[in-house]
């Protein structure tokens, strides 16, 4: 499994998310209490950018129409079978790295 460096750890504060690029793929990266989580950036409703959504604890709200996802497992809050893909994340030497498949 290959990991790709996406940003400095300090670039993403607790309670925030952002869109990062992993070899051409857009991934939404979040910092929940110092732990980093990565999911597909594309909302399954109509493609809204989840990395730009508002994060509350471990739930992000899509900025387009408000679908909510748990960033730890990618599931939508209203249907745990409906999910976006999640990616493994690790932090090394103050850098955040996301799994590339
Ligand atoms: S595109 Fe995300 S809620 Fe509609």
State the gist of this model.
The chain is built from no helices and 12 strands. With 101 residues, the protein is an all-beta fold. It is globular.
Q: How much helix, percentage-wise, in residues?
A: under 10%
Count every beta strand, where a strand is a DSSP E run of 2 or more residues.
Answer: 12
Mean pLDDT: 97
Q: What are the secondary-structure elements, in order, as H or E? A: EEEEEEEEEEEE
CATH homologous superfamily, by name?
Rieske [2Fe-2S] iron-sulphur domain
Reported for the largest beta sheet, the result is: 4 strands, antiparallel
Q: Which residues form runs of ≥5 with pLDDT under 50?
A: none
Number of domains: 1
Task: Return the structural class.
Answer: mainly beta
Give a topology summary.
Layout: E1 2-8, E2 17-22, E3 25-32, E4 35-40, E5 54-56, E6 59-61, E7 68-70, E8 75-76, E9 79-83, E10 86-87, E11 89-92, E12 95-100
Bound molecules: FE2/S2 (inorganic) cluster.
FE2/S2 (inorganic) cluster binds next to loops.
